[in-house]
Design goal:
The complex is a heterotrimer. By secondary structure, chain A is mainly alpha-helical. In chain A, 74% of the residues lie in helices and 0% in strands. Chain A folds into 2 domains: 2-55; 67-140, no CATH class. Chain A has 5 helices and no strands. The radius of gyration of chain A is 23 Å and the shape is flat. Chain B is mainly alpha-helical. Chain B has one domain. In chain B, strand 1 and strand 2 form a beta hairpin. The longest helix of chain B is centred in the N-terminal third of the chain and has 35 residues, at 102-136. By secondary structure, chain C is α/β, with parallel strands linked by helices. In chain C, 40% of the residues lie in helices and 20% in strands. In chain C, helix 4 (96-103) packs across helix 11 (297-315). The model of chain C is unreliable at 12-20 (pLDDT under 50). Chain C has 11 helices and 11 strands. The longest helix of chain C is centred in the last third of the chain and has 19 residues, at 297-315. In chain C, the strands form 2 sheets. A 6-stranded mixed beta sheet of chain C has the order 2-1-3-10-4-11, with helices on both faces. In chain C, strands 7-6-8-5-9 form a 5-stranded mixed beta sheet. The chains are: A mainly alpha, B mainly alpha, C alpha/beta. Chains B and C meet through helix 3, strand 1, helix 17 and helix 22 of B and helix 2, helix 3, strand 7, helix 7 and helix 8 of C.
Chain lengths: 151, 497, 318
C-alpha cells in the first residue's frame, strides 16, 4: 500500500517536472526561460531519481495516507474549499469566515452535540475569534476585504 | 561616542510612550501570520506624517526590531513563521513547544534576539563607514553565489532524505518563476489568472506551513483530536539566561552570520536565520539533536535574525540604498520628513539619527521584557484543543494572506499550495527547503541574468563569476558546504551499518 | 495625530454603515504597482495626505502595493480585478504602462483606464559614479562610439521611462550601448552605478538629486525639454546636442478602471487636483526632492493620447 503510494506521489512530481521542462525548452522568448531551463533540468533529474527509487521500493521516508484519514479530512476540506473559493467572495469575507469557523467547530468538536453547553462554548469561541479579526483587520489595519451579500 | 549624548531625546515622555506602543504593537503584528516587518512599517508610515521626524523614526525603529522578534512567537507556537526570517525558528522552536517547552523556547528566542540585536546595533554605531564599504563591494556575481550558498543549507534542514530536500528546493525555485518575469516582463507558467501576480512569498509561506497542519488535524477525525494533552512546563527566566549563555557557540555563530548577511543588499534577513542554523548544526557536537527541540537551533536562528537588523540599515543610512524591503520602507519614511540619507547623514542630522539608533537599543530591551512576559502567557497556546486551533489557523491564514496585497488570488495560491504540501509531506518532502527555493530562486535568477548581461561587455561570464577575491571566497564556501554535507552523510551511513 | 484619529473615527462610522452618505462613504484604496518605499509609493502617500479633510474626499486614502515586473502585475490586476465602484483607484506611471501595452503581453492599454489627475513629473537623468571619467554626455557618446556595446548602463526595467530614455539616447547619438535592466527597480539600478557594477545609468531625477546630494554620483544630463528647478546646473540632452525630448518623463497620477460611474469620476476629477495643490503636499514633495506637475483630467487625457502616438513611433522598430 505504502509503496504504491510512493510510486504514485513521486510519479506525479516527475510528471510536473516533465511538463515544466517541456515548457521551459519550447516557449519563446529564450532569454526569459534561461533560468527555468537550468532549474527544470535539476528538477527533472531529481524527480526521476526519486521516481526510480520508489519503483524499486526503496522509498522509506514519510508515512503515507490511509482511507480513514481521507474520510476524516473530507468534511474539513469541503468546508474550507467552499469557504475560500466560493463563500468568501459571494457572502463577504467576515460572514463566510464566521460560518466556516462555526461549521468546523461542529464537525470536529468531540463534545456531544446533544449537550447545550458545548453549543454555547462553540458560539462564544466563534464570536470571540471574529471580533478579534474584525478589530485587527477592518478597524486597525483598514484592510478592505471582499464584500458580497454581507460584509 | 556621540550617540550617548542623544539618549536624553529617547527618555522623554512622548518618545517612551511611542517606544512602548511600537514595541508591543510590533510584537503582536509580528506574531500574526502575514503581517511581516515590511508590511507593519509600511502601515505605520502614514501615522508618522504628523509627528516630528524624531518621534516618527523612534516609532518605526521600535516597530521594526520588535516585529522581527515577534515573528518567532507564531513560528514556535503554531509552526507558522511570521516572516521568512523565522523559518529556521520553526524547526526546533516548534518541536520544543510540542514537548510542552513553549515557554522556554520563547524565552530563549527573545533573549537571543536581544543579544543579537544589541550587537547588530553596536556594529551600526561604531563600524558604519567600514561596513558601508563592505556592503558596496557586493556585486551581482557575489549576490548570486550567496544565493547558491543558501541552497546548500537544504542538506541541514532535511531530517529524512537529502534528495527529496533538494527536489523540494527545485520545486520552490520553479514556483518562484511563475508569473511575470521581472526583467523581460514575459508571463511564465501562468496556468490560471490567479497566478498572474506570481507566487508571493508571504502567502506561500503561510500556506506551506499552516495548511498542512490544519489538514493533519482534520485527518485525525472528530474523536481523536484531543488525544495528546500537552502539559505546559514552567520555565524560570534566570535559567533561560543561563541556558543562552552556556550555548556560546550557537550564539556567536548566529550573531556573526546575522550581522554579515544583514549587510548585503538584496538578500537581507530572509536567509540569515537559516544560514546560522545550518552552521550551528554543522559545528555542534550534538548534530542529531537538531530538529527535535534543541535549544541551540532556536538560539542560533533568533540571534541571527535580530543581529541583521542593525547592519541592514548601513547601506540605507550611508549610501541611501535600501538593502532590504523593510529598509526601503524606512527610506520612504525618512524622505517624507526631508531627510536624505547619505555619507554626511550623521553630521547633517545628528539630532534625528542618533535618537533613532538609540531607540533601537532601548527598543531591544523593551522587546525582550515584553516578549518574556508574553511568553509566560502564550505558551498556553499549545493547550488549546486541536480542533479549535485548526479553525483559528485556517482563519488567520485566510486573513493574513489576503491582507498582504488585498488580493483573493493570493488566498487561492495559499490554500492550493498548502494542500499540495500536505500530501507531499506525507511522502517525505518538506516545506522549509521549498520555501528556501522560493526565496532564493528570484535572487539567483536576477543576479545571474544581470551578471551575464554585464559580462558580455567585459571578459565573458566565466571571468565575471569566478575571478576576483570575493567570488573565490564565496565559491570555496559553496564547495566546502556541499563537501561537508556529503561527508557527514557518508559517515552517518557508515555508523548505521 | 488628532487628525488621523478623527479620520479613523469617521472611517469607522463609514464602515459600519451607520451613515448612508454620498460617495465616498468609506476609505478609498489606491493601488500602487511598485514596492513600498519606492519613489512612486512615497509620493503617492504624500499626495494623498489631505484626502481625509472635509473639503477634500472626506475619507482617508489607503495605499496598497502590488509590485512586480515593472508595474505589469499591478496594472493587470487593476484592469481585470479592481472593483469599478470608485473605491479602488490606481496609480499610473506614463510612459511605463503605455509602452508596455504597445509592446504587448499585458491586459491593459490607455482604453482600460480613466485618468483622474496627475501629481508629478519626474524626468529621467543620466548618471555616473562620482569617480567616473565621464563629465558630460559628449564623453559618454565618444566612449560608446569607440567601444560599441561595451558601455553598460542601468535602469529600472524594460519598457519603463528609463528604458525609453535609454532608447532615445542611443538613437539620437547613433551608438550602441548595453542597457542593463534591474529587477529591484530604480533603487537597484542606482546601486549598480554607485558600486561601479555598471559604467553609467538612467534614473529618476528625484532619486538622483538625493544621491548627488549624498555625494555618490554625478548627473550628466536631463531627458526633458528644459532644465529642472531641482538641478538648475544640469544641462538637458538637447543642450548637449542629443535630440531627446520629454517622452521618457515619468508622469505620476491617479486613475480609476473603465466602467466606474461617471458621477464618481466627475467628483474625483474635481476634488483630486485640489488635493494635490494642498500646501502640505507641496511642502513635503519639495522636501523629498520630487518635482510636481498638477494636471486635471482633461490635460491628462490629452497627454496620454500624445504619448501613445510618440511611443508607437519609437517602439516600432523593436
Amino acid at each position: 500500500m505504502n509503496i504504491l503510494q510512493h510510486k504514485l506521489s513521486s510519479g506525479f512530481v516527475a510528471c510536473i517536472a516533465i511538463i515544466v521542462c517541456y515548457i521551459s525548452f519550447t516557449r519563446q522568448p529564450t532569454d526569459a526561460y534561461l533560468f527555468p531551463r537550468v532549474i527544470s533540468v535539476f528538477f527533472l533529474g531529481l524527480a526521476l531519481w526519486t521516481f526510480i527509487k520508489a519503483l524499486l521500493g526503496l522509498s522509506k521516508v514519510g508515512n503515507g495516507l490511509s482511507l480513514t484519514m481521507f474520510k476524516n479530512m473530507f468534511p474539513g476540506i469541503l468546508i474550507s474549499s467552499i469557504y475560500l473559493f466560493i463563500a468568501a467572495k459571494s457572502l463577504g469575507f467576515y460572514t463566510a469566515t464566521t460560518i466556516a469557523f462555526f461549521l468546523l467547530l461542529i464537525s470536529y468538536d468531540p463534545a456531544p452535540h446533544t449537550n447545550l453547553n458545548s453549543w454555547t462554548k462553540r458560539i462564544i469561541i466563534t464570536a470571540c475569534f471574529i471580533a478579534i479579526m474584525y478589530t485587527l483587520f477592518a478597524k486597525i489595519l483598514v484592510v478592505y476585504t471582499p464584500r458580497g451579500m454581507f460584509i | 561616542m556621540d550617540f550617548i549624548f542623544y539618549f536624553g531625546e529617547v527618555f522623554t515622555l512622548t518618545s517612551m510612550l511611542l517606544l512602548i506602543g511600537g514595541t508591543i504593537g510590533g510584537l503582536i503584528m509580528g506574531a500574526t501570520p502575514g503581517l511581516s516587518p515590511t508590511m507593519t512599517v509600511a502601515l505605520l508610515i502614514p501615522f508618522t506624517f504628523n509627528m516630528t521626524p524624531v518621534h516618527g523614526l523612534i516609532l518605526l525603529g521600535a516597530a521594526y526590531t520588535s516585529t522581527v522578534a515577534g515573528g518567532a512567537v507564531s513560528a514556535i507556537l503554531l509552526k507558522i513563521p511570521g516572516a521568512p526570517a523565522n523559518i529556521a525558528t520553526t524547526l526546533d522552536g516548534n518541536a520544543m513547544a510540542r514537548k510542552g517547552e513553549g515557554a522556554k523556547a520563547l524565552q530563549l528566542s527573545f533573549i537571543s534576539s536581544l543579544i543579537g540585536g544589541i550587537f547588530g546595533v553596536f556594529l551600526l554605531i561604531f563600524l558604519t563607514p567600514v561596513l558601508a564599504k563592505m556592503a558596496n563591494s557586493f556585486g551581482y556575481s557575489h549576490t548570486f553565489w550567496l544565493a547558491i550558498i543558501g541552497v546548500t543549507v537544504i542538506g541541514s534542514l532535511e531530517a529524512g532524505s537529502v534528495v527529496k530536500g533538494l527536489l523540494s528546493g527545485c520545486i520552490g525555485m520553479w514556483l518562484a518563476t511563475i508569473g511575470f518575469d521581472d526583467i523581460q516582463g514575459v508571463k511564465r507558467f501562468v496556468f490560471h489568472p490567479a497566478l498572474g501576480g506570481g507566487v508571493n512569498i508571504i502567502p506561500a509561506l503561510i500556506g506551506l506551513f499552516a495548511i498542512p497542519q490544519v489538514i493533519t488535524m482534520f485527518a485525525k477525525g472528530r474523536f481523536q483530536t484531543d488525544i495528546k494533552q500537552i502539559t505546559v512546563k514552567k520555565h524560570p527566566i534566570s535559567q533561560a539566561f543561563r541556558e543562552v549563555f552556556s550555548r556560546k557557540r550557537a550564539l556567536a555563530i548566529g550573531t556573526s552570520i546575522g550581522s554579515v548577511i544583514g549587510l548585503i543588499p538584496g538578500v537581507g534577513g530572509q536567509i540569515a536565520g537559516l544560514l546560522a542554523y545550518d552552521q550551528a548544526k554543522k559545528f555542534s557536537p550534538e548534530k542529531a539533536k537538531f530538529g527535535t527541540g534543541h535549544s541551540e537551533g532556536v538560539i542560533a536562528a533568533e540571534s541571527a535574525n535580530n543581529a541583521m537588523v542593525g547592519p541592514s540599515l548601513v547601506p540605507l543610512l550611508t549610501l541611501s540604498i535600501p538593502g532590504s524591503p523593510t529598509a526601503a520602507v524606512l527610506l520612504g519614511g525618512l524622505i517624507i520628513h526631508g531627510i536624505f540619507p547619505g555619507p554626511t547623514l550623521f553630521q547633517d542630522y545628528p539630532e534625528v539619527i542618533w535618537p533613532f539608533i538609540n531607540s533601537m537599543l532601548i527598543g531591544q530591551i523593551l522587546m525582550c521584557i515584553f516578549g518574556i512576559y508574553i511568553a509566560s502567557l502564550a505558551a498556553r497556546v499549545a493547550q488549546v484543543p486541536q480542533f479549535i486551533m485548526a479553525a483559528i489557523v485556517l482563519g488567520l491564514a485566510a486573513f493574513g494572506s489576503f491582507a498582504v496585497q488585498q488580493s483573493m488570488g493570493d488566498v487561492y495560491v495559499m490554500v492550493v499550495l498548502g494542500t499540495m504540501m500536505y500530501f507531499l509531506e506525507r511522502f517525505g518532502f518538506s516545506a522549509a527547503p521549498l520555501v528556501l527555493g522560493l526565496i532564493l530562486g528570484p535572487i539567483a535568477e536576477s543576479n545571474f541574468v544581470t551578471g551575464s548581461l554585464i559580462s558580455t561587455a567585459q571578459n565573458g561570464p566565466f571571468i565575471y563569476f569566478f575571478t576576483g577575491g570575493l567570488n573565490i571566497v564565496l565559491v570555496s564556501i559553496v564547495i566546502l558546504s556541499v563537501g561537508f554535507s556529503i561527508w557527514s552523510e557518508i559517515t552517518a551511513k557508515r555508523q548505521e551499518t | 495625530m488628532k487628525k488621523i484619529i478623527a479620520a479613523l473615527a469617521i472611517s469607522l462610522i463609514g464602515i459600519s454603515g451607520a451613515v448612508k452618505a454620498e460617495y465616498p462613504e468609506r476609505p478609498v484604496l489606491l493601488m500602487i504597482p511598485y514596492g513600498a518605499g519606492g519613489a512612486t509609493d512615497f509620493q503617492a502617500r504624500i499626495a494623498t495626505i489631505p484626502a481625509g479633510n472635509d473639503d477634500m474626499l472626506g475619507m482617508p486614502v489607503a495605499i496598497i502595493n502590488k509590485p512586480g515586473a515593472g508595474g505589469r502585475v499591478g496594472w493587470n490586476w487593476f484592469a481585470n480585478d479592481a472593483e469599478k465602484d470608485g473605491y479602488t483607484m490606481g496609480g499610473y506611471n506614463v510612459p511605463h504602462f503605455i509602452a508596455q501595452s504597445i509592446k504587448g503581453g499585458v491586459d491593459y492599454s490607455t482604453d482600460s483606464f480613466e485618468p483622474i489627475a496627475n501629481w508629478g513629473s519626474d524626468p529621467a537623468v543620466f548618471v555616473v559614479g562620482k569617480d567616473s571619467n565621464f563629465n558630460s554626455m559628449e564623453d559618454v557618446v565618444a566612449f560608446a562610439k569607440s567601444n560599441p556595446g561595451k558601455l553598460t548602463f542601468s535602469g529600472a526595467g524594460l519598457f519603463v521611462g528609463h528604458h525609453i530614455a535609454a532608447l532615445q539616447i542611443e538613437k539620437a547619438a547613433g551608438v550602441k550601448m548595453l542597457y542593463i535592466p534591474n529587477k529591484s527597480g530604480g533603487a537597484g539600478a542606482m546601486k549598480a552605478v554607485i558600486s561601479g557594477e555598471v559604467l553609467a545609468g538612467v534614473n529618476n531625477l528625484s532619486d538622483a538629486f538625493r544621491a548627488q546630494k549624498a555625494g555618490t554620483i554625478k548627473i550628466l544630463g536631463v531627458a526633458d525639454l528644459e532644465r529642472n528647478a531641482f538641478l538648475p546646473d544640469v544641462p538637458t540632452m538637447m543642450e548637449q546636442g542629443l535630440d531627446v525630448d520629454n517622452t521618457s518623463v515619468n508622469f505620476r497620477g491617479v486613475m480609476v478602471p473603465k466602467g466606474t460611474p461617471q458621477a464618481v469620476i466627475d467628483k474625483l476629477a474635481a476634488v483630486v487636483p485640489e488635493m494635490f495643490k494642498h500646501k502640505r503636499v507641496a511642502q513635503k514633495m519639495k522636501a523629498g526632492g520630487s518635482p510636481m506637475k498638477i494636471m486635471n483630467r482633461a490635460e491628462v487625457l490629452d497627454m496620454w493620447a500624445k504619448r501613445q502616438t510618440t511611443l508607437e513611433d519609437l517602439l516600432k522598430g523593436l
